[in-house]
Amino acid sequence: MSNDPEVVNELLDNAQDEDNPQFRDKAACALANDQIHLTDVQKLRLYERLVDALGDPNLQVRQIALEALRMLTGQTRSFDPAASQEAREPAFREWQRWLEAYRSRL
Amino acid sequence: MARSLPLAPVAAGALVAILVLSGAPAADTPRVAAPSSTLVSYGFDDGNIATGPDTFAVFEKSKGRVHLSSAFRTSGYRSVEIRDVADDGAFPELQGYFPLRESGMLYAHFAILVADPLEQLNIALAGPKWFAMRKDGVAFWLQTRGGWLCQYSDSIPKRLFQMRPFAWYLVDVAYDIAAGAYDLTIREEGRNEPLVALKAQPNAFSEPGSAVDKFSFIGDTGHDTSNVDYYVDDILLTVDQPIALAPFVAPGRRKLFFDAWNDSQALLRSKPSCLPAIDVQDFGLTFDAIETLRRDGLLETLENLIDGRPVTIPDHGSDGSVRALQAVLLWKGGCSALEHGDAEPALERFTKALERGPGGAMYEASAVLSLAALGRWDQVDVRLAGVHAAWRDDARLPLFLAMIGLARSDLEAAEQPLRAHATRVADDPRLECALVALSTDLDLKVIDMVRKRFPADWPSCLHAAFLPEEYYYVLLARKSHAEAGRYAARMAQRLTAMNLPAAPWVERIGDAAFLEKDYTRALARYRESAGQGGPDGALILKLSDVHHLLGDVQKEREYREAIYGSLHEAQDHPESRTEPNKKNDPDAGEDADADPD
User: Fold this and answer.
1) How far is CA B298 from CA A85, A102, B534, in A?
2) CB hemisphere CA count around B108 (13 angstroms)
3) Is residue B218 within 8 Å of residue B144, measured between CB atoms?
4) What is the pLDDT of residue B304?
């Protein structure tokens, strides 16, 4: 549990770039479960990175990003990480719209 | 609001299935249900402050407090003060209950005043999934954040206005349940123009159809950082379509624990039939599976299927979704076949449903019921163990056991064979393994242990282990309450003689006495059972009910408040409050009833 931006950034990097899929998964779990003291700005940064990861070419990165978003927001916005890029696009844009709404409220 | 009332132990109590599954009042207690638009109305000025399952609960663990206060109020002379203390390991809560609303409009009104808006408070309307971030979880959520009052809408904390300390704010919410959206109006006392007048706000997690049945006022949401001190007054919840509300039969509740016993008889038949599903988890559907169904656009199909509406399973959708729907469809077909007495094809469909939906306890339970209908008792006993373990805390287990028990004999004719077997269980010392098995919570580990210790006899051991409960519930179903009580007493004696825990059977003696309306004897047995082990929520409620029926207002209240807390002035705060046990049992100190059971 940490609100150190460096820790959060490191976890985000691990969730997206770590070679070992288990470590990616662990990092995403830590992001979803343990970052309870984030400030609003830090939380926005977290959401930005997770929504960005929904566009990752790696299926598992998209899956764990969606799972983290679901745990943090209670929503999936009908995003299917296993669908084709074309099929994912509407839900991805929906997440981006949500992110913009979130950002505008800070 | 992160916590839920300890309903799990209540639901786990024997016979509560009957209560949960039924809705009508007791046959011998005529009650007129008057349609009303008002679900909840608390001004905290009158005597209408009894906690209970149909009113509200107060949680004051650790240092937090929920008190009646005359320091501030918007009307009358009192409000409720909620005071949290940071780093005390808990938070105080005023949590209220009202009949489940799954459609229509719900109008909520309340007033709040906060001493320091920088401290966090949370106010929510939620549904049967309590305060989860999902459909039927939190629907409406207000929170203070850094001095701002925010609404949590569409998973976004949205600032509304900066709160002033010691100012009353009047909040009005008009929640359209089907749309999953609400209008929000907030006025500051003394000002004509509203501070907030928002329309069609998505609910907390943008979930259309998110039902509601409870409200909550707390400090922070579990971070234990809040020192908030705030006041709540004039809570009023109304609906657009009046609904029938049974009158209160005792403080805080519209039904006593056993009120609905007679209502269950329609569900108990001589031929087994499917039990009602109460959750999608009955069908082995995980959260991920539900999400996949939602993504595939098949969630409505599933709901229609479960509700028995005609559907066609589409060929689109993921493999998992299609298999899940097929499993439910097979189950429905099996239930229909079982209903018509075609147990063999029913069993076949339940078996196929299990193949397509592994982990679906409802499929397994239905298969066991069809085996019972076929009279394949060896298979029933083995598979019954699995259902018993899976549904150990499920409110439907007693009903399920009664159905199995009824199937073992002809309800209208001969129960003699069943009686003979069950009697043998109570008397035959050779069936030690059965007594050991049934004296504890029967789960797969115990079954494994029995299998290893009694490799030759374990099937008959399981049979003997299940038979007593089945027999007992059959006797109750036949209204043979006295006989049920005698049988329970013999079981309790056998277990005691073997130095095994007998508390559940002592409680069953009490249940039978209660149903005979012998409340004094019921009380004695309930107290004895409570004295043998930590009483669960169900037993505490029964104790409260019995005291109510015996006219002991004080003890009724003490037991009820052991679960639901109490609302009182600060100066009346008790030293400590925990569930009754040997140390602080409201009945402690009184001589045990010399009952000749």
Assistant:
1) 22, 29, 45
2) 29
3) no
4) 81
Q: What are the chain A neighbours of B145 within 8 Å (beta carbons)?
A: 40
Instruction: Spell out which residues of chain B touch residue A37, defining contact as CB-CB under 8 Å.
Output: 223
Angstrom distance (rounded) from CA B539 to CA B14: 9
Closest C-alpha to B140, from B82, B198, B200, B215: B215
Q: Are B494 and B426 in contact (CB under 8 A)?
A: yes
**Whole-angstrom Cα Rg for chain A:** 13
- B289 against B183, higher pLDDT: B183
Side-by-side strand order, sheet with B138-145? B56-59, B93-101, B212-218, B122-126, B138-145, B148-153, B156-162
A99 to chain B: which residues are within 8 Å by CB? none
Decide: helix, strand or coil at residue B256: coil
Contacts of B462 (CB under 8 A, 6+ apart): B381, B382, B384, B385, B434, B437, B447, B450
**Closest Cα in chain B to A88:** B295
**pLDDT the model gives residue B421:** 59
Determine the pLDDT at residue B442: 61
Instruction: Provide the token pair at B124.
Output: 């929510």
> pLDDT tens digits for B460-510?
677 667 778 888 888 887 788 999 999 899 888 888 877 778 898 999 999
| CA distances in angstroms from B2 to A41, B92, B138, B271, listed in the order given | 24, 11, 10, 43
d(CA B434, CA B44): 53
Instruction: Render pLDDT for A13-42 as a digit per residue (tens, 0 to 9).
Output: 777 777 777 777 777 777 776 655 677 888
Ramachandran sector of residue B577 (left: φ over 0; alpha: ψ -120 to 50; beta: rest): beta
Rounded to an integer, what distance in angstroms lies between the CA atom of residue B113 and that of residue B189? Answer: 10
B593: confidence class by pLDDT, cuts 50, 70, 90? very low
Q: What is the mean pLDDT of chain B?
A: 81
Tokens 């669960």 sit at which residue? Answer: B536
pLDDT in tens, B159-181: 999 999 999 999 999 999 999 99
Q: What Å distances lie between residue B257 and B10, B14, B19, B68, B254, CA to CA?
A: 10, 11, 7, 28, 10
CB contact under 8 A, A74 and B223: no
Query: B295 and A78 in contact by Cβ < 8 A?
Result: yes
Q: What is the pLDDT of residue A94?
A: 95
A13 touches chain B (CB under 8 A): no
Q: Which of A25, A5, A105 lies closest to A71 in space, CA to CA?
A: A25
- Shortest alpha-carbon distance between residue B297 and chain A (Å): 9
Best A73, A99, A104 residue to mutate vs chain B (most B CBs within 10 Å) = A73
Nearest to B133 among A40, A74, A78 (CB): A74
The chain A residue lying nearest B132, using CA atoms, is A74
Residue B530 pLDDT? 93
What's the confidence (pLDDT) of residue B418? 47
Give dist(CA B534, CA B545) in Å, integer.
18
Identify the residue whose tokens are 């983290």.
A68
**Distance (Å, rounded) from C-alpha B426 to C-alpha B492?**
9
Q: B205, B185 in Cβ contact below 8 A?
A: no
The CA distance from B230 to B169, in Å, is 11
Give the gap in angstroms from C-alpha B200 to the nearest C-alpha of chain A: 16
Interacting residues of B185 by C-beta distance below 8 A, sequence separation 6+: B171, B172, B194, B196, B197, B198
Q: How far apart are CA B433 and CA B457, in angstroms?
A: 9
- pTM value surpassing 0.80: no
Q: How far apart are CA B557 and CA B544, in angstroms?
A: 7
Q: Choose among A102, A87, A17, A51: nearest CA to B202.
A: A102
Average pLDDT of span A85-99: 95
- Using CA atoms, how far apart are residues A34 and B80, in angstroms rounded to an integer? 34
